[in-house]
Amino acid sequence: MEDVMVKGERRPITTIVFVFAMQKEAQPLINRLLLVKEVNSPFPKEVTWVLFNGKYKDLNINIVCPGKDSTLGVESVGTVPASLVTFASILALQPDLIISAGTAGGFKAKGASIGDVYIVSTVAFHDRRIPVPVLDLYGVGMRNAFPTPNLIKELNLKVGRLSTGDSMDMSPHDKESIIANDATVKDMEGAAVAYVADIFKVPTILLKGVTDIVDGNRPTSEEFLENLAAVTAKLDESVTKVIDFISGKCLSDL
């Protein structure tokens, strides 16, 4: 998305939309910024999506989560809910910037450790295998995140590639694709958010905190649940520093 140098590039960023898969990932930031749940939601009444908003410094901050599945009551993770909330949020809130934030698995072979927070350089899918010329590239759907060299340098952030799929585990097919994507971290939403944002040419940053080591010796789900609270707190610290850096700046300053 590095070609997204919109007309408002020299205008200070005023509205940010954060897309989180799970409210528990977003809750520390909601608490820190004193955001409140929007009672007059701009979203259709049928959906379970939740919107928290408020003012922080000179920024209008919005946090959107897909909410709980209406049938099973679990968090609506994955690419489909992420795509839908991103689409609706862009239309309803007209953000200058989208930030896809949340937890991810990391690969120790690429230098990732539990608690690391990465800013993403490129994002792609690893479970959309379409072995037909050109459709294969569409399936991978690789996109660049909005370039933020000054932000990375100032906050000394780790940078890595992200690979997205709708399963928490990693099949041999997925592993092959993730290696091809040269990914340091993997999640279940990032590429979907980037896909929708790219349609509307909304600059997008992705920040991912590592809860589990995918190529380690422990079950991913076990490690994820064990580390979720601590890593979410670390993610909150990093995201807050990012917001502080963005405040008062234009897209081209990032």
TrEMBL record:
CDD domains: MTAN. It comes from the Eukaryota. Pfam families: PNP_UDP_1. Residues 15-243 form the Nucleoside phosphorylase domain. InterPro entries: MTAN, Nucleoside_phosphorylase_d, Nucleoside_phosphorylase_sf. This is 5'-methylthioadenosine/S-adenosylhomocysteine nucleosidase. It comes from Cardamine amara subsp. amara.
